[in-house]
Design goal:
The protein is α+β, with helices and mostly antiparallel strands. The protein has four helices and three strands; from the N terminus they run αβααβαβ. Strands 1-3-2 form a three-stranded antiparallel β-sheet. The protein is globular.
């Protein structure tokens, strides 16, 4: 984060999008897959080759603050990033802030 801070132009913003490990839908999916397959949770973002760290809303905010950034927008998004998540179900999740992805816009403190 400190390297990103140095790379930003004055007044620039950092935009981060990560899987939301704290989303109720993710917890439910992991529970269901573990129960039905008997081989543990299989959430596609629990892949150490792609995601070294997993965040919930609070942990992402703490990480950015510790790295010298102030989040100005922190919200969840739902749906697959490839489809846009336009279904009624995805809109409901987003309205309740339960989406499976976290989007954050942050400025240097």
């Amino acid at each position: 984060l400190r390297k990103l801070e140095a790379a930003l132009r004055p007044g620039g913003c950092l935009v981060v999008e990560v899987p939301n490990y704290g989303a109720p839908t993710v917890r439910l999916k992991c529970w269901w897959l573990a129960r039905s397959r008997h081989d543990g949770p299989r959430w596609r973002h629990l892949n150490p080759l792609e995601h070294c760290w997993h965040f919930e809303r609070d942990s992402l905010q703490r990480c950015l603050t510790a790295g010298g950034f102030e989040p100005v927008l922190l919200r969840t998004m739902s749906g697959d990033s490839n489809t846009g998540g336009g279904s009624r179900f995805h809109r409901l999740l987003q309205a309740r802030d339960w989406g499976g992805r976290l989007l954050c816009v942050a400025q240097v403190q």
